[in-house]
Amino acid sequence: MSNSHADVATEHASRYLQQLCKHWAHKFPVSFDPNHGEIELTIGRTVMDAGDTALRIALTAADAASLERLESVVEDHIKRFAFREELAFAWQRQAA
């Protein structure tokens, strides 16, 4: 398994977490509340925790290629939700 995480600085972490979970709930298994969300995508698992100043995102995928794709998909979707806010994603990969 391959893992990565990013802490994205934002005061709107809960809003983005809920938007992403609601967006994918019609297509994938999703569970969430205002502070924690989990999404089981076909390419991997996304876990998010909303804080006052950051959205923590943890990803797990079967291999490095799937993880890279998952990072891109999650990042692109959240950036679309936050079109008025410039977000920085610094993915940190964990050794397998």
Question: Can you give a write-up of this model?
Answer:
This is 2,4-dihydroxyhept-2-ene-1,7-dioic acid aldolase. InterPro entries: UCP028291 (IPR014543). There is one protein chain. This protein is an alpha+beta fold and 96 residues long. The protein has a domain at 15-50 and 65-88: Alpha-D-phosphohexomutase, C-terminal domain (TATA-Binding Protein), CATH 3.30.310.50. It has helices at residues 13-24, 64-81; strands spanning 2-9, 30-32, 36-41, 44-50, 54-61, 92-94. The protein has a six-stranded antiparallel beta sheet, with helices on one face. It is globular, with a radius of gyration of 12 Å. The protein starts with a strand and ends with a strand.
Throw out a few tags for this protein:
globular; 6 strands; 96 residues; 36% strand; six-stranded antiparallel sheet; alpha+beta; TATA-Binding Protein
How much helix, percentage-wise, in residues? 25-40%
Poorly predicted spans: none
Beta content comes to: 35-45%
Q: What spatial form do the alpha-carbon principal axes imply?
A: globular
Q: Look at the structure and give the mean pLDDT.
A: 95
Mind telling me which CATH architecture of the domain at 15-50 and 65-88 this is? 2-Layer Sandwich
Measured between the Cα atoms of the first and last residue, the distance is 6 Å
Radius of gyration: 12 Å
The CATH homologous superfamily name of the domain at 15-50 and 65-88 equals Alpha-D-phosphohexomutase, C-terminal domain
Order of helices and strands: EHEEEEHE
Lateral arrangement of strands in the main beta sheet? 2-3-4-5-1-6
